[in-house]
Amino acid sequence: MQPAIFLDRDGTLNFDYGWITSPSKMELLPGAADAVRAINDSGFLAVLVTNQPVIARGECTLAELAEIHQKLEALLAQAGAHLDAIYFCPHHPDTGVAGERPEFKISCCCRKPAPGLLESATRDLNIDVSRSWMIGDSERDLGAAAAFGIPAVLVASNQQAFKESILSKCAFRAASVNEAARRIFSEFPAF
Length: 191
Prior knowledge:
The chain is α/β, with parallel strands linked by helices. It has six helices and six strands; from the N terminus they run E-H-E-H-E-H-E-H-E-H-E-H. It has one domain: 3-Layer(aba) Sandwich (Rossmann fold). The longest helix is centred in the middle third of the chain and has 17 residues.
């Protein structure tokens, strides 16, 4: 069994320009590729877990999302980094959006803050939960980690103001995914 660092996507690895609906909008945050490469070298798995309601809202197809993730993987590969797996939730429970796809407009167990994506990855990849972490930029990410029973790091590269109730859910706060990963490795090594 191997521990994992579960990574959010938008606002954690790449710039959050609102909903990304095409590969041309995929742009890594400074240091994100270095962070993933450091995860790759650390003994942890790098596992992306991301809510993608653009599918349910009809703003992006599954094929287009695959192209976006291919661009993400290509950008990481240019820096010698890779994701071990990508898990995404295409659902969104709210209805009433023009062009929405009814088959994805459901309440589910995979949309963060539910832990379904982390549970699926753990089953598929034989992850050691007792030594795993979550790095994300939202209360949903922290909630998924808490529901799954792992520590979380809140990255705030955009310097958002978070309520104390949110901050109390994270092990620590970091300015970037790179800082978060490096602190995990120095203070909580995988092996």
